[in-house]
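**Protein of interest**
===
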Amino acid sequence: MHVGADGWVAEARRVPSPNSDDRPPGTRASLVVLHGISLPPGEFGGDGIERLFTNRLDPAAHPYYEAIAGMRVSAHFLIRRDGELVQFVPVTRRAWHAGASSWRGRARCNDFSVGIELEGADDLPYDASQYAALAALVRALASALPLRACAAHSDVAPGRKTDPGASFDWAVFHARLLSS
C-alpha cells in the first residue's frame, strides 16, 4: 500500500467528501485517531456512512438519520467489515472527524491527525480483515507522514466519545502492525 504525494492511497476506493479543509500552515499529521461507526447503529454493509460523509444522508431513510443528517463530518478513511478501504479525504487535508479534542495537551486533533473509521460498534468484535487492512494502512501512513502515535477517539475526546470501544483489540492491532 502506498500514499501518493497528493495524499490519496491508490489501493483505496475514493469517495471524495466536501467536509474537509486545509491543515494549518506547516502542519502534517503526526497522530492516527481510530473510530468505530455503523449506520444505522449496529447495522453493517449499507451506504449510510458514505452518504453521511458526503452530505447525502436522507433523514427519511431511517429514524436515527433525522438527528444526524445535517452534520458536516468526515474521516480520511473507512475500513469496511470485509477489509475494503474507502478514502474520503487526502491525508494532506484536514478531515472533520475528532470534533472537540486534545492529545497530550495539544487541542484540535483534526489539525494534526488522520481519522480512520472502522465499520463496527463498541460492543461487537471487529473482523480480522479489518485489523489486517488497518495495519497495512498505518504502515503506509507511517512511511509518508511523521506519525508518532495512534489513539482511540475515546482517548482524544474522553467523556464525549467511546469508540472504537472495548471490542477493539489493541493487542491484535499491534501484533498485526509489527508482523508484516
